Amino acid sequence: MYPSALIDLHCDTLTDWKYTTTGNPDTLDDPKRVLSLSAIPDGVRWAQFFAVFIPDEQRGQDAVDYFEFNRRSFYRQMERFAGRVSPCRTAADMEAAWAAGKTAAFLTIENGSALAGDLSRVKELAGQGVRCITLTWNGENEIGSGHTTGHGLSDFGKAVIPEMEKEGILIDVSHLNDAGFADLLKEAKKPFVATHSNARAVCGHKRNLTDDMIREMVSRECLIGLNYFVKFLRDDGEVKGLDDLYRHVEHFLELGAEKNLALGSDFDGAKLPECLSTPAKSAGIYEYLLSRGLSREQAEGIMFRNAQNFFQKHLG
């Protein structure tokens, strides 16, 4: 049994550059990629955050050019596959895409280096349809740093937070290090997201969220997407089945995150376990959650409803 809908907060499927390419410019329906429009299960209303992933070594104008190449690709493919997918900026756009039997596609960015240290680019990117920005990747950029260093947000990073809130771009703390997260809490006035992060108490990787972070996000009515990457699910990376995902679900629920939990697959950006290696298997999480004793309301919340409610409030 599949859910009636599925919202996925992160994939790297869109990005096509020398770092990640199969030679097919139509990245959204490329059979060599994990996620493709053709692989989405029939009958499931699907919404996807398509991130432009920018490697840490791309900075300044190089990062801008990298983003622009992939942004143009996104909108070109929206036209090419217009019968099956619609570009979306709002919750209403998503509902309209679903009503038309199409996948709802949101343009996002993974790595705030796309701003190139220029605050005016926040408004520019918002105008281009960007709805969410992951502030950092693993290393440093003009905003702050990922888990490879201990630096918090820069002065520019602290200024970016209210600007993103003003322009309606969701702030994504996945990849942000602990010091940066603490700095963000002082600056953020609106709920933010962790598009693809798990629970550090269950799997100790620094990319995962601590219990204190999770409690803070629950209190602020934030949104957290479960990541399928094997090294964020288990310390040894040896994921045998969906029970390893459920350990995180259970921990999040124990911390009160029932209304905050969503999906953030990391399709085409991470090594996936066999049990989560296709869109159909991702949709199969729903039946598994029911088999573990979650109510239909709880399972639907994780699969799509929590994210849907969040979008209605914060992606107007």
Q: Helical proportion?
A: 25-40%
Largest sheet: 6 strands, parallel
Q: What is the number of helical segments per DSSP (H or I, 4+ residues)?
A: 11
The beta-strand count equals 9
SSE class: alpha/beta
Order of helices and strands: EEHEHEHEHEHEHEHHEHHH
In whole angstroms, how far apart are the ends? 31 Å
- Overall pLDDT level: 97
User: Would you identify the regions where 5 or more consecutive residues have pLDDT less than 50?
Assistant: none
Please indicate the percent range of residues in DSSP E strands (runs of 2 or more). 5-15%
Morphology: globular
How many whole angstroms does the radius of gyration measure?
A: 18 Å
List the helices and strands and how they pair.
Layout (H helix, E strand, L loop, with lengths): L4 E7 L33 E9 L7 H20 L4 E3 L3 H9 L3 E8 L9 H8 L2 E5 L20 H13 L2 E3 L5 H10 L5 E2 L16 H9 L3 E4 L3 H4 L9 H12 L6 E3 L15 H5 L1 H7 L4 H19 L2
Parallel strand pairs: 1-2, 2-4, 3-4, 4-5, 5-6, 7-8, 8-9
3D structure, described in words:
The chain has helices at 61-80, 91-99, 120-127, 155-167, 178-187, 211-219, 230-233, 243-254, 279-283, 285-291, 296-314, and strands at 5-11, 45-53, 85-87, 103-110, 130-134, 170-172, 193-194, 223-226, 261-263. Helix 10 (285-291) crosses helix 11 (296-314). Helix content is 37%, strand content 14%. Strands 1, 2, 3, 4, 5 and 6 form a six-stranded parallel β-sheet that branches. Strands 7-8-9 form a three-stranded parallel β-sheet. It has 316 residues and is an alpha/beta fold.
